[in-house]
Amino acid sequence: MSASTRALRSCTGILRTPIRSQARLISPVAATRFRRTMSTGTEQTSDAAQQSADGAQPAADTPEAKLKAKDAEIADLKSRLRYAQADLINQQKIAAREKEQQRDFAISRFALDLLETADVLSLALRSLAPPANASPETQSKLDEGLRAGIDMTQKQLLSTFAKYNVVPFDPTGEKFDPNRHEALYEAPAPPGKEPGTVIDCQKVGYLIKDRTLRAAQVGVARSE
């Protein structure tokens, strides 16, 4: 039984006695003890009520907690925005690079088909033969005119290729490179030539910018 309960019962018993006898029953010590007990009970009741009031309001509902939550949300949104911006810039760079490559190499098939025409013209220049029963003077004029016409056609064709970054290359004398050369045959290395060197070019190769459009068809020196 608590001290406050005992004091209350004592006071109740005193109140039930006649008024004249109450003065004799309540001693100064008992009165002081009763006042202390009632004061302590009141303070405990007040503290319990305050704790109950504090517990009724969650910490998350305080202005400070709400402000911290908003700051964290803003920081997260800023971080996401930075990542999104960086990803967008990367995607734009990739798209621009792919677009440039498509523009540079879009005519690859077209150029590859025309290469055969350039090969025919080159072959015609090599195998130009005089017609039968022609005088030397006539033959000379025909040869000169025919050669000039074929040569002009070939130059015009190569000029057209150059507009689209398609350029020929002759690897004779270079070291054999399987990425740019196609070996048709091997032959003993001529004097002064190292094994693995291109000694003959049957068909020149073509580059489109820094990419091999067609490998050069070559003969390669082999070691004895």
Automatic annotation (TrEMBL):
<dbReference type="GO" id="GO:0000774">
    <property type="term" value="F:adenyl-nucleotide exchange factor activity"/>
</dbReference>
<feature type="region of interest" description="Disordered">
    <location>
        <begin position="38"/>
        <end position="67"/>
    </location>
</feature>
<dbReference type="GO" id="GO:0006457">
    <property type="term" value="P:protein folding"/>
</dbReference>
<keyword id="KW-0143">Chaperone</keyword>
<dbReference type="GO" id="GO:0042803">
    <property type="term" value="F:protein homodimerization activity"/>
</dbReference>
<dbReference type="GO" id="GO:0051082">
    <property type="term" value="F:unfolded protein binding"/>
</dbReference>
<dbReference type="GO" id="GO:0001405">
    <property type="term" value="C:PAM complex, Tim23 associated import motor"/>
</dbReference>
<dbReference type="InterPro" id="IPR013805">
    <property type="entry name" value="GrpE_CC"/>
</dbReference>
<comment type="similarity">
    <text>Belongs to the GrpE family.</text>
</comment>
<dbReference type="GO" id="GO:0051087">
    <property type="term" value="F:protein-folding chaperone binding"/>
</dbReference>
<dbReference type="GO" id="GO:0030150">
    <property type="term" value="P:protein import into mitochondrial matrix"/>
</dbReference>
<dbReference type="InterPro" id="IPR000740">
    <property type="entry name" value="GrpE"/>
</dbReference>
<protein>
    <recommendedName>
        <fullName>GrpE protein homolog</fullName>
    </recommendedName>
</protein>
<dbReference type="Pfam" id="PF01025">
    <property type="entry name" value="GrpE"/>
</dbReference>
<feature type="compositionally biased region" description="Low complexity">
    <location>
        <begin position="47"/>
        <end position="61"/>
    </location>
</feature>
<keyword id="KW-0496">Mitochondrion</keyword>
<dbReference type="InterPro" id="IPR009012">
    <property type="entry name" value="GrpE_head"/>
</dbReference>
<comment type="function">
    <text>Essential component of the PAM complex, a complex required for the translocation of transit peptide-containing proteins from the inner membrane into the mitochondrial matrix in an ATP-dependent manner.</text>
</comment>
